[in-house]
Amino acid sequence: MASTTVVKRIFVAGHNGMVGSAIVRQLQQQDNVELVLRSRSELNLLSQADVQAFFQQEKIDQVYLAAAKVGGIIANNTYPADFIYENLMIECNIIHSAHVAGVNDLVFLGSSCIYPKLAEQPMQESALLTGTLEPTNEPYAVAKIAGIKLCESYNRQYGRNYRSVMPTNLYGENDNFHPNNSHVIPALMRRFHEAKLNNTPEVAVWGSGKPMREFLHVDDMAAASIFVANVSQETYESCTEPMLSHINVGTGVDCTIAELALTMAEVVGYQGNVTFDATKPDGAPRKLMNVDTLKRLGWSYTIELKDGLASTYKWFLAHQDDFRG
């Protein structure tokens, strides 16, 4: 008698975003997965009634909660109420509705901004709630911390298997390349690309170039999320601290902004001079994640920065018409 494969119905919330789309690409390669996806027009994640009805109807087995309202410093400063309200509502609606519908397995994706502004480097999971947050994105960070505590609380009270992963700075396919509100990698990639096209003799990078940052390719983030979702409870508990509420996801390796810029110029093929404007703010001197917990579980990153930048630039060239203006 032929064996039957048990198919898992998996809901990826935020499947059109950078991380969500990467998770979808990897789950699509698995034979035992049936993806359940809904666009914003099909499912309003801010509506408790709509989300509860969705979970009751769809019989979901596993959830990846990658949906979030995200933005840069300007957006966070301009719309703090939107950032805290929308992220809190999305998390509460999905996590609670998943529980009510009997979903036992869920992965919540957070952000490294949950840690105190002056957290000791590299940042360990235990640094959570030990100091003051960075003021510019505090509302967003508070919402993400609430998501972690939601998962932790449903685990404690109901025995659920809701796990939280906190990524370092991400980049890759489907990133935001907007000239005014993108993060450092897509911003630099677009600037060097346009400088190459226009034969601009010099590109000035904001700051001294001395701050150090850690970067993880989004495909590695997706792989780590799926790994954490499916590692056995026995292994999870044996490799994590008692009552650990979340797991850092990163490379454990950082580089200076100057090193990043020079590597970016090489990847893009920009031949001009790269300078640094030290009159512009540097931000925090270092932001690095301690990834020892993830390594104990058995996962490490695979995509080196230069290789990841090269594949991202290839994707950017294929989609650059989407980034005009």
Automatic annotation (TrEMBL):
An annotated Gene Ontology molecular function: GDP-L-fucose synthase activity
Q: Where is this site: Important for catalytic activity?
A: 111, 113
Pfam families per UniProt: Epimerase (PF01370)
Q: Give the binding site residues for substrate.
A: 191, 206, 213, 282
Q: Does the keyword rRNA processing apply?
A: no
Q: What is its EC number?
A: 1.1.1.271
Keyword Ion transport included in the entry's annotation: no
Q: Which InterPro entries match?
A: Epimerase_deHydtase, GDP_fucose/colitose_synth, NAD(P)-bd_dom_sf
Q: Which residues form the NAD-dependent epimerase/dehydratase domain?
A: 10-231
**SUPFAM superfamilies referenced in this protein's UniProt entry, alphabetically:** NAD(P)-binding Rossmann-fold domains
Give the positions the UniProt entry annotates as the active site. 140 (proton donor/acceptor)
Q: Which UniProt keywords apply?
A: Isomerase, Multifunctional enzyme, NADP, Oxidoreductase
List, alphabetically, the Gene3D superfamilies matched: NAD(P)-binding Rossmann-like Domain, UDP-galactose 4-epimerase, domain 1
Question: What's a single GO BP term from this record?
Answer: 'de novo' GDP-L-fucose biosynthetic process
User: What is catalyzed by this enzyme?
Assistant: GDP-beta-L-fucose + NADP(+) = GDP-4-dehydro-alpha-D-rhamnose + NADPH + H(+)
Q: Which HAMAP family match?
A: GDP_fucose_synth
What exactly does this protein do? Catalyzes the two-step NADP-dependent conversion of GDP-4-dehydro-6-deoxy-D-mannose to GDP-fucose, involving an epimerase and a reductase reaction.
* The name this protein goes by in its record: GDP-L-fucose synthase
Name the species this protein comes from.
Thalassolituus oleivorans MIL-1
